[in-house]
Amino acid sequence: MPATDPAATPRRRQKRAEETRAALLRTAMNAFSVGGYDSVSVRQLEEAAGVKRGLVAYHFGDKEGLWRAVVQQLFAALADDFINRIVTLGDVAPMEAARAMVKAFVRYSAAHPQLNRLMMQECAGDSWRVACIVEEYVAPMLERLGAALPEAAALLWGERDPHRYYLMVGAGAFVFSAEQECRHLFGIDPRAEAFVERHAELAADLLIRP
Asked: What is the chain written as a DSSP string?
């Protein structure tokens, strides 16, 4: 009779735990981005994820901990897909670097529309969640980009100009947040590659001018 691998059961348990955590994150990301933090309870999240009661507490402590994990995951993806690549453009002409920043943001927003949807939900009111998003993620991100590419950043949002900043966010992300409206109104999938690339070019043309 073959010997039982003593590590097999712990490995299976670890795999199940990782799958459960991932399922909760996916479910919460969708719920928080569509309806907001207060639209769903811990029990509803666990039921929607198909996991046992109490597993939000086990993996994240509480609903706030789960929300923070969702936001961290979304901004980590933004760092991987956008910021970490953009800060390598120090030797590129400022206008080209600024255009690259816009295009990269458009592509990220198309791939991850949940971030802008979640921010639109949260930033409609004032709460600890807005403070978390701004203080822990958005402000440090802008500071990092400004330090790495000051001339390109100045072309995008000047001296922290709110008008230019929100023009960039709106031009770069809104159509993907309003995906279903675009489908109904124009019969177009805004997350299709050809649309995304065309939108990236147009957004760069609109926002970055000689």
From this structure: -PPP-TTHHHHHHHHHHHHHHHHHHHHHHHHHHHH-GGG--HHHHHHHHT--TTHHHHHHSSHHHHHHHHHHHHHHHHIIIIIHHHTT-TTS-HHHHHHHHHHHHHHHHHH-HHHHHHHHHHTTS-SHHHHHHIIIIIHHHHHHHHHH-HHHHHHHHTTT-HHHHHHHHHHHHHHHHTHHHHHHHHS--TTSHHHHHHHHHHHHHHH---
